Each structure stands twice: as C-alpha cells, then as structure tokens.
Amino acid sequence: MTNDEINVVPMGCNCFPRVSAVALGLKPRKNQGELSYPFDLGIWPIPMVRFLIENDFEGMTDPANLFVRPDPFGQPILCDKRFPSCSYNHEMPPATDIDFVGDNYARFVERYNRRIQNFRTTLAGKKRVLLYMTATNLLPPPYNPFAYEDFHAIVQTLKTRYPNTQFRLLVVIERLQFSIPDSWNNEIYTINIPVIGPYTLCFPYIQAVLGIRCVFQSIFSSYS
Q1: End-to-end CA, the chain
Q2: Residue 161: pLDDT above 90?
Q3: Does residue 114 belong to any structural domain of this protein?
Q4: How many Cα neighbours within 13 Å face the side chain of 149?
Q5: Domain-located, residue 85
Q6: CATH number for the domain including 129?
Q7: Is-cis flag, bond preceding 10, omega within 30?
Q8: How many other C-beta atoms lie within 10 A of the C-beta of residue 186?
Q9: d(C-alpha 95, C-alpha 190), whole Å
Q10: CA nearest neighbour of 9 among 36, 33, 46
Q11: Which residue(s) pair with 191 in the sheet?
C-alpha cells in the first residue's frame, strides 16, 4: 500500500494534523493542488468536531451561529456561538487581510461551504481515508474535554454515511498525557506525544512530527 492510495483528511482539533501531514510528505501543499477541508486550520473542541460530523456540518456556515469575541490578548476571534471556545483564527487578522466578517460573513460562508463539499466528495470518492486529529488536554484528570467514545462515534458515523470507504482514525493526544492510553485496534490509533509548549515553536513541533512518523506506516499497512 502506497501513501498516494490513501487520502489523509485533517479533523482538528487544531492545525497540527494538516501542518504535520504536509511536513511528512503525506499531503501535497495547497499550491500543489491539494483540497482544503473544514478542519484544516483553526481550533475546534472535540465535542464540536463530533457534533458537526454526526449532524453533517449542520449550522457550521449559518451566520446566525457566528460571532466575534476577543481572545486573551484582546485580538478579535471568529467563533461559533454553540461552541465558543472554538477559533477560526485563520479567518481573522493578523492571519489574513481578507474580511470574513463583513456582509454577514459572506466570505466565510463561501469558503467553508466549499471545504465541506470537498470533504463530502473526498470521503465518498476515495476507497481509503485516514482521518487525522489531535486532542489537547490542558487540565489534569479527572477533567477531560474529550473521551474515547468521541473518536469511536466520529468513525462510526462516517462509516455509516460512506459505506464504500475504509476509514482509519489517528488521534495524537498532546499536552498533559495519558488521560486516554495509547491503543490500536486496526481502526482507531491513539498515541500520546509529550509536547511541551505551543506546537508552533520549532523544537516541540519537530519533536511531535518525528514522534508520529512511524505510526503512519502501521496504519497504512492495516488497509486491505
């Protein structure tokens, strides 16, 4: 099984899956023709990802669900009212000069409707899809903003919706570790990577990418 026979689709909860998949040569860059998907660049809590998958992206591009709030540094952040901890930070300054808020969020609606359609088309048209997500736990047990059941529900929903596609899910659990142990059942692979500090910093980023390099080959070999 070669990498180009498997489509890697980022699933949040931050930008790391898209960025690291490109760094490892598992996805082309956008300027090489690679499609963009709904969970490529931004911050989405795992319950939001699960809700949007189970409800086929219901309300994601409804202007009534969008609002702008200040981040801890006073910068404006575009969010979803239903999940206010999410952040479409690549649709706001300083990441972009494009106005995604004006005209009742028209540019946002256009961009994310296109990304949702890309997601649906890819999952319906590819035989093998690797869903790739991070899960960030910033607080110690017993508090946990996600559970293994969330990962299982995402996979089962997509298997039902796209019965001709083989799915695998890789979950990289970062920050505070081992609230969910490492496991692999030939469908869902969870691995704890001890990233200390923001993954956008050079050393933690390289550390995390190198830590998951060998995981992909194990997953690729599980497809029939």
Answers
A1: 8
A2: yes
A3: no
A4: 4
A5: no
A6: 3.40.50
A7: no
A8: 10
A9: 31
A10: 36
A11: 172
Q: Is residue 88 part of a domain?
A: no
For 83-122, the pLDDT digits (tens) are 988 999 999 988 898 999 999 999 999 999 999 999 999 9
Position 49 scores a pLDDT of 96
The total of structural domains in the chain comes to: 1
Q: Where are the alpha helices (DSSP H) in the chain?
A: 16-23, 46-54, 102-125, 148-161, 202-220
Please give the Cα distance from 83 to 114 (Å, whole number): 21
CB atoms within 10 A of CB 195: 22
Domain region containing 17: 3-58+119-220
**Main-chain dihedrals φ then ψ at residue 137, nearest 5 degrees:** -110, 105
Note whether residue 103 is domain-resident.
Answer: no
CA distances from 221 to 1, 2, 157, 224 (A): 6, 9, 23, 8
Determine how β-strand 166-175 pairs with β-strand 76-80.
unpaired
Spatial distance between the Cα atoms of 57 and 52, rounded to a whole number of angstroms: 4
Q: Token pair of 53, please?
A: 């998958």
- Record the pTM: 0.90
- Integer Cα distance of 181 and 190 in angstroms: 7
